[in-house]
Design a protein that fits this description.
The protein has about 120 residues and is mostly beta strands. It has one domain: 3-layer Sandwich (Rieske Iron-sulfur Protein), CATH 2.102.10. About 5% of the residues lie in helices and about 40% in strands. The protein has a 4-stranded antiparallel sheet with strand order 2-3-4-8, with no helix packed on it. Strands 1-10-9 form a 3-stranded antiparallel sheet. The radius of gyration is 14 Å and the shape is globular. The structure holds FE2/S2 (inorganic) cluster. FE2/S2 (inorganic) cluster binds next to loops.
Length: about 120
């Protein structure tokens, strides 16, 4: 059974929108994971901030209207909801769950087996 650590990244949704404009992304290091948080048309999504193609920082890229993040290096797009490569030219990227609650915006990091 997997469980998550839920880490607060913003105090509220407004703070998130102030920090990450629509169509952009930013990166956080959370529990040793470099994570790209992207603000796309249909919400906020989190994926690993390392392009599976050749390691570029996806948070330096931009979002499309189809909720993809486009890598800044070779412009391969990835579906932010599933992490799937939509170009078919790369491996998929790891996704992380986001929860927006009254007391903040949280990202879920899978607990290691010894932490459960
Ligand atoms: S490094 Fe991201 S598309 Fe090549």
């Amino acid at each position: 059974m997997s469980s998550h650590h839920w880490i607060k990244i913003f105090d509220n949704e407004q703070a998130l929108h102030n920090n990450i404009p629509l169509g952009k992304a930013t990166s956080f290091v959370i529990k040793g994971n470099k994570i790209c948080i992207a603000h796309s048309t249909n919400g906020v999504f989190a994926v690993a901030d390392r392009c599976p193609h050749n390691g570029a920082s996806l948070s330096q890229g931009f979002c499309t209207e189809k909720d993809e993040i486009v890598c800044p290096m070779h412009r391969y797009p990835f579906d932010l909801k599933t992490g799937r490569t939509t170009s078919g030219l790369s491996m998929n990227v790891l996704t992380y769950p986001i929860q927006i609650k009254e007391n903040g915006v949280f990202i879920g990091i899978k607990a290691k087996w010894w932490e459960v």
